[in-house]
Amino acid sequence: MANATQHLETALVGTWTAIPDAPQVQKPDRPSEGLYRMRVNSDGSLTPLGVVKMKSPSWIVKSRDGRFAYTTNEEVEGTVTALAIDANGEVTVLNQVSSHGQQPTHATLSPDGKFLFVANYSVAKGGAGVTVLPVMNDGKLGAEVQHIAFEAGSGAVQDRQQSGHAHSTTFTPDGHYLFAADLGDDKLHAFRYHADRAQPLEADSARDVRFSAGAGPRHMVFSADGQHAYVTVEMSGEVVVFDVKDGHLTQKSAVKLNAENASAAFKSASGILFSPDGHFIVTANRGDDNHLVVFAVQQDGSLSAPKRYAAGGIEPRAFAFDATGKHLYVTNVFTNSITRFDFDAQSGALTPAGVAATVSTPTDIKFFN
């Protein structure tokens, strides 16, 4: 007999706490107050439970065991907040430390859980780069132990690439290498990871990856076996596919997210993730497009022709599957909504299920059991 008091999943929703100044923004009734906690109901809907007040917790990193989370606070004086998540989904702030940069927009934990690697995007010149923060046994973050500045920009897109802009940090599945996407310099910076060193990152320029001028690499994922990598390139509106061998990336192909419209307004790639079984890749294109794009992953790592689905909102920045793998949730920043899609694991098809929740300027969503 089913347990009537069965514990339901909890969602944490990151936001910007300042309303963006952009033409497509639909101004909310009030600005966000921070990190929102929501119950995931059995029908897939989301019920607000409360808010942890803080400034612009724009990206959420979940520890492997789900007991802790880390948010990048995307402000000019960047910070990172450590959180404890208890068995009932209650959230406690552990501590907050400097990101040693401006507008930290992404972070990742090392596979061994020893360090958090923060990507400081920095709109202005001089605040971009990767900062390494140690993770304590109690989940708290220690002070910065290493900082690598991203100063040079490619200059190809005048208002976006006058300097470096670190947009994400991603580990190879074996934990040997970290790649940092630099939108400003059209480059993936490669680093060897040394868990036993006080400063664990060692630059490995032989494994760096250069993109075409003005492409703007943003987010990255590896296949579970580590043999293939996929990178969203924001300003060229593509997913670039790589073969991977011993940490070296060799470009295999590039697939457009919108093959029908080549104008710059329809080129704004955002996040990327695998379906739970690894058979499909989901990404999104923003700007004037605002579609989710689904690819089947072929046996050789290449991608099928894309299937496109209207995101149900403007500026679909991030998305995540719930624990069942049956529902995909999308944060639409400019329309202050989280939309839900039912996912068919056999075909990769997405079926829109409407707005799951209304939240001011939602930027990320992660699920905790």
TrEMBL record:
<keyword id="KW-0119">Carbohydrate metabolism</keyword>
<comment type="similarity">
    <text>Belongs to the cycloisomerase 2 family.</text>
</comment>
<keyword id="KW-0313">Glucose metabolism</keyword>
<protein>
    <submittedName>
        <fullName>Lactonase family protein</fullName>
    </submittedName>
</protein>
<dbReference type="InterPro" id="IPR015943">
    <property type="entry name" value="WD40/YVTN_repeat-like_dom_sf"/>
</dbReference>
<dbReference type="InterPro" id="IPR019405">
    <property type="entry name" value="Lactonase_7-beta_prop"/>
</dbReference>
<dbReference type="InterPro" id="IPR050282">
    <property type="entry name" value="Cycloisomerase_2"/>
</dbReference>
<dbReference type="Pfam" id="PF10282">
    <property type="entry name" value="Lactonase"/>
</dbReference>
<dbReference type="InterPro" id="IPR011048">
    <property type="entry name" value="Haem_d1_sf"/>
</dbReference>
